[in-house]
Design a protein that fits this description.
5 helices, alpha+beta, 12% strand, three-stranded antiparallel β-sheet, 95 residues
Length: 95
């Protein structure tokens, strides 16, 4: 059975997940990214999101995990990047 998940439910599920580390702003940005790119047919799976996406405090913190990536442009060429508005934070699809 499919259930339409609204922004509040999506954000609440990610923020309250004790094994995830998404900020409220990050969860909102990710919701809009997924909805805009996947549409209403996206099947919400909070565990899948937690295992596939990571939020970073800054680009520099993110790049510490990838030796072969030096710039935001390099990162965008390798994976999906979701900037979090009004912050230096970003969410990436892990690779």
């Amino acid at each position: 059975m499919k259930k339409l998940v609204y922004e509040y439910e999506f954000v609440d599920a990610l923020v309250s997940d004790e094994y995830a580390s998404f900020s409220r702003q990050g969860a909102i940005a990710l919701y809009h990214y997924l909805f805009d790119n996947m549409g209403e047919d996206y099947l919400f799976d909070s565990v899948g999101i937690r295992c596939t996406w990571s939020e970073y405090e800054s680009l520099e913190k993110c790049l510490e995990n990838y030796d072969d990536i030096d710039t935001l442009e390099d990162l965008v060429e390798h994976t999906a990047v979701v900037p979090i508005p009004n912050t230096d934070k970003l969410i990436i699809e892990d690779f």
